[in-house]
Design brief:
- Helices cover about 65% and strands about 0% of the residues.
- It is mainly α and about 90 residues long.
Length: about 90
């Protein structure tokens, strides 16, 4: 907790104000959810999220979304297709 306070103390006044406004607008459930999400992304438990950790989390979310779309397409009675906008050549 002390580390978090030191990081907060080092912020500009504008950043502090923005964080305080956001914190006051969130419910305890939302804060708890964000805390859990942070812990999930922070795989090395360092207290910070690296670019690599963020990339891995992002790519994992994309893979999950693609898998879910595939399940929906397979379970759908009609063939799944994606329509791309046609290009006209002038």
């Amino acid at each position: 907790m002390e580390r978090v306070w030191v990081q907060f103390a080092g912020m500009t006044k504008l950043k502090k104000a923005a964080f305080l406004v956001m914190a006051r607008c969130l419910s305890s459930e939302e804060i708890s959810g964000l805390r859990q999400l942070f812990k999930t992304i922070d795989t090395d438990s360092s207290g910070t999220i690296t670019v690599d950790e963020l990339k891995v989390s992002y790519l994992s979310q994309i893979a999950s979304a693609c898998q879910a779309l595939h399940v929906v397409a397979v379970s759908n009675s009609r063939p799944a297709s994606i329509q791309l906008p046609s290009r006209s050549v002038h």
